[in-house]
């Protein structure tokens, strides 16, 4: 994100977030490093009560589709995430990640679906796999099948599972922005 741009947080909107490794170095090329990122994302999700709708771990960058955290700000949650990963992988938060991050406010259902699709198709577009389901370092399989991974994903699958656990099955849950006017 260029310097001087204003972030619009505390809006109740979802956020499409991208951040990169320092000088776009491919620091997520091993399963172990990718697992460390996923575990850190789950820790931040729980600690900040952050809704994670989608994510993908690419070799040199990360994409997230998240809500605003119930505790603190999105910037605080991302800072904790980036510092935690850097400490576990190289011990130096200053040279693992590029400073700052790109943040796009998702204002309607069409944008939400567009960003969800972009995140899950990114490994295919970059030539890392042939199909989204072949890249295990994303939330695609959860959205396609409901199977649980290292990161709890906010979805209709998860909402139904919570209802079953509570002893009541609800009707289909709409994704964010679905109650807004669709263009």
Question: How does the major sheet shape up?
Answer: 4 strands, antiparallel
The number of distinct helices, counting runs of at least 4 residues, comes to 5
Radius of gyration from the alpha-carbon trace, in angstroms: 16 Å
By CATH, the superfamily comes out as Transposase IS200-like
Strand content: 5-15%
CATH architecture: 2-Layer Sandwich
Which outline best applies? globular
Q: In the residues, how many domains can be counted?
A: 1
Q: What is the mean pLDDT?
A: 87
Quaternary form: single chain
What would you note in describing this structure?
- The protein is of the alpha+beta class.
- The protein has a single domain, classed as Alpha-Beta Plaits (2-Layer Sandwich), CATH 3.30.70.
- The chain contains five helices and four strands, in the order βαββαβααα.
- Strands 2-3-1-4 form a four-stranded antiparallel beta sheet, sandwiched between helices.
- A hairpin with a 3-residue loop joins strand 2 and strand 3.
- The longest helix has 18 residues.
- It starts with 13 loop residues before the first strand and ends in an 18-residue tail after the last helix.
- The model has no long low-confidence stretch (mean pLDDT 87).
Strand-helix topology:
Layout (H helix, E strand, L loop, with lengths): L13 E7 L10 H18 L3 E6 L3 E6 L7 H16 L12 E5 L2 H17 L14 H6 L10 H10 L18
Kindly summarize this structure in a few lines.
This protein is of the alpha+beta class. It is built from five helices and four strands, in the order βαββαβααα.
